[in-house]
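Exercise: predict the structure of this protein bound to NAP.
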Amino acid sequence: MADMLDSDMAKPLLETDRGNSVRTLGACSGETVGILGTGDFARSLATRLLCSGFKVVVGSREPKRRAGTFPPEAELTFQEDAVKRAQVVFVALFREHYPSLSGLSEAMAGKILVDVSNNLEVEVNRESNAEYLASLFPQSAVVKGFNVVSAWALQSGSRDGNKQVLICSDCPDARSHIAGIARSMGFIPVDMGGLCSAREIENLPHRLLPFWKVPVLLAVGLFLFFYLYNFVRSVLHPYLMENKNKFYKIPVELVNVTLPCVSYVLLSLVYLPGVLAAFYQLRRGTKYRPFPDWLDQWMLHRKQIGLVSFFCASLHALYSLCLPMRRSARYTLINEAVKQVKANLSSAWVEEEVWRMEIYVSFGIMALGALSLLAVTSLPSISNSMNWREFSFIQCQLGFVALVIGTLHTLTFGWRRAFDGNHYKFHLPPTFTLTLLVPFVIILGKIILLLPCVNRRLMMIRRGWERGCSVRLTNVNLTTDLPEISSPV
Ligand SMILES: Cc1cc2nc3c(=O)[nH]c(=O)nc-3n(C[C@H](O)[C@H](O)[C@H](O)COP(=O)(O)OP(=O)(O)OC[C@H]3O[C@@H](n4cnc5c(N)ncnc54)[C@H](O)[C@@H]3O)c2cc1C
Ligand SMILES: NC(=O)c1ccc[n+]([C@@H]2O[C@H](COP(=O)([O-])OP(=O)(O)OC[C@H]3O[C@@H](n4cnc5c(N)ncnc54)[C@H](OP(=O)(O)O)[C@@H]3O)[C@@H](O)[C@H]2O)c1
Ligand code: HEM
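Solution:
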């Protein structure tokens, strides 16, 4: 404990308080805070509070038994005594044990009770834990908070993970007071309003990457499809038709043909909904009618789909760089050299092949570079430093450029193979031809949308014009974002 007090954990991460209603560090420091319960959370909380300058009194059913488990600076006593000595009491018990506190009603009257509890499952109970606590102690001000912080995060001084602590209460003063304590402990309090938000706050720790499920499943589905397709073409076909063993391709080559296909198709799925949305708006002649639910959902998942695409493209780049260092590649090279010597050929240089590869690798690198920029700007710390226009420029324009360069990379890689019957195995076309379909539709769609007559109408719609409504747009510079919509005439 002494070590901890000396370390940087002893210093709250945020010392200043710029808010008006929130208590400052100075105002909170030195205050006695009560904690009911002596479990993991109570222990971490006590340690963090002590490090932040508070006095801590812990209430237990058996204070003597728990004495050794807390820092010596924390005072362990019976529950009632702890409640009587503090104005703020953290209830670090599970919900099912709340009724065991009923004998403390009188001592708890007028105090601020902080409910830190979580449930094992989402929405198991009719009312939130905090509302339940409030119903048991109607004379106390119940505040929900700190449940989104783990005991570990409390101990490590909130440096790991999210520093935000969501707080809600029907008593604004109590809410501000607890927000002040959270700030003094180095957390960032987020005011969530009344106690009716407690259910939402209690559900938060159960959330596990909700927007990632669909994109990841999509990527896995595409991976399985392309992997199987490539396996049939590149391994099964030579084995069955030419009696050649190409199973060595399974770990690297097949993966390196599959990954870029997944990445490229996902990238095109990021930009397809924007085109579909534009055509919807053009057909309906308004932007005020909501999109179909599937399109809305699709648009909401684009960030995650794009990041999964970037991930696959990065792996593809790494795999590609490793291709020449494999033993199979070396043996193939040596065998080719021996064949060349036997055939008395002095040079195997094929000018067209050299140029093709130089160009497609260069396009690949450029596409990955553009995608990396998109990925970097999607980090909250970077996107927060950009205005809407800059962010949208990078995401829409540069993203589309990445798709176009990726298409050039794929086309130069495929070259004439799409038209060469020898590359159709079991009548299956080369894999890259399948991936080109959606990007071609997008590029064609974008070209149509850029036609002046179409583009003008789309811009008008996006500025509020509606077909059949007499809204007149005046002085509109359609290349800027400042709408000037006159009142209906
Ligand atoms: C590596 C990577 C990272 C990415 N990171 C992010 C990210 O951090 N955040 C993010 O949002 N996307 C991200 N994306 C996804 C993608 O870049 C963006 O969604 C991008 O804005 C799509 O551009 P768009 O031109 O197709 O569509 P949009 O810009 O969405 O749409 C084009 C036009 O449609 C209109 N429009 C769009 N939605 C609606 C609507 N609901 N109602 C009415 N009109 C509408 C707008 O007027 C807009 O001008 C990422 C993609 C990749 C590949
Ligand atoms: N652990 C975390 O990371 C974490 C994170 C966020 C929120 N929380 C919440 O914090 C609360 C406590 O969690 P925890 O991990 O510290 O739990 P815990 O280790 O099980 O401790 C709970 C404490 O409750 C008391 N208790 C146990 N049985 C009881 C009973 N039958 N009647 C009355 N009191 C009883 C005990 O204290 P005494 O024996 O001293 O009375 C015990 O130490 C929970 O609501 C949890 O959801 C925990
Ligand atoms: C540093 C960046 C990149 C490099 C070095 C690179 C290199 C390569 C190589 C060597 C191949 C041939 C693979 C093989 O024959 O086994 C290839 C194919 C391909 N690449 Fe890339 N690439 C890069 C980035 C990208 C990106 C960003 C995309 C798409 C978003 C992409 C999409 C494709 C596609 C679709 C194929 C065709 C796969 C097939 O059908 O066989 N690549 N690339």
